[in-house]
């Protein structure tokens, strides 16, 4: 069993740690990244603790996370110019918080390949 008491994103979802929240519904929370890498940088996080994409069993959940990301991109006014959605997984993927999340990044031109 994961220790959700000490999980940063579980603590944000429970309201124990403040965040700039943009969506808070039954299943998900979305909030602005504390260290934004683009003018819009929002994290879309399921309230249920899932360590990473590697732990995912509900395949529809990521679809709902991506649908919310697209809705937020429209709300942020970046849908027409474009944006990037990213899921970092594990050490080599650059994941630093062990709770599944989608990054929504936009408002500037993105380069490829990522670093
Ligand atoms: P990742 O490296 O893909 O696991 O992404 C974790 C993200 O969480 C990073 O972009 C961090 O800047 C962000 N982050 C860490 N702590 C907080 C916090 N307290 N509030 C909002 N975002 C955070």
Give an account of the 3D structure.
The protein has 115 residues and is α+β, with helices and mostly antiparallel strands. The chain has one domain: HIT-like (HIT family, subunit A). Helix content is 24%, strand content 22%. The chain contains three helices and five strands. The chain has helices at 8-13, 59-76, 90-93; strands spanning 21-24, 28-32, 40-46, 83-86, 102-106. The protein is globular, with a radius of gyration of 14 Å. The relative contact order is 0.21. The mean pLDDT is 97. Bound molecules: adenosine monophosphate. Residues 8, 17, 19, 31, 33-35, 43, 88, 94-97 line the site of adenosine monophosphate (AMP).
In what range is the share of β-strand residues? Answer: 15-25%
Distinct small molecules bound, one entry per kind:
adenosine monophosphate
How widely separated are the two ends? 33 Å
The string of secondary-structure elements, in order, is HEEEHEHE
Output the strand order for the largest sheet. 1-2-3-5-4
Give me the CATH superfamily: HIT-like
Helical fraction equals 10-25%
Question: What is the CATH class designation?
Answer: Alpha Beta
> Which descriptor suits the 3D outline?
globular
Structural class from helices and strands?
alpha+beta
Q: Low-confidence spans: pLDDT under 50, at least 5 residues?
A: none
Corresponding CATH architecture: 2-Layer Sandwich
Radius of gyration based on Cα positions: 14 Å
Taking all residues together, what is the mean pLDDT?
A: 97
- The DSSP helix count reads 3
Main beta sheet, described?
5 strands, antiparallel
Number of domains: 1
CATH topology: HIT family, subunit A
What's the total count of β strands? Answer: 5
